[in-house]
Structures are given as structure tokens and as C-alpha cells.
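To: structure desk
From: M.T.
Subject: fold request, one chain
Message: Could you run this one when you get a chance? Sequence is below, nothing fancy, just the single chain.
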Amino acid sequence: REAVHVVRADGVIYSAGMACAFVLRQIGYPRLGAMMMWPALRPIVEWGYRRVARNRGWIGRLLFGKNCKL
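Reply: Done. C-alpha cells follow.
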């Protein structure tokens, strides 16, 4: 599977939705990132991540006027 990954300095690896949650915590959205990591919300976060990742082309065009390329 393809997904974004984050490797912390201590070696912990996050991928997909949890990687996004970690990044949000680091860039100034600590509450949102922490809530996304709650065990009860993880399935919803991962579901949302997969939907956005699958549709990033049209989402990129909608938001930025061009395709999102990875």
C-alpha cells in the first residue's frame, strides 16, 4: 500500500491518517491531531485518508486549480 509515512526521531513510524495527525500536532494544530489519534476515531481518520488519497487529483483541482502529484 502507498501512504505518507513519518518517522519520529525515536524511531516510531506513523503512516496514512496517523502520519497526518502527527504532522498536524507538529505544525500548530495539537488538539486536532491528538483527537485524530484517539482509538475510537482512528477508523474514521483512516477511512477519510484513503478517500482523500484516492481522489487527490480532483481535490487538488478544486482547491488549488491543478492536480496534486505525488
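Reply (cont.): The first helix runs from residue 17 to 26. Let me know if you need anything else for the meeting.
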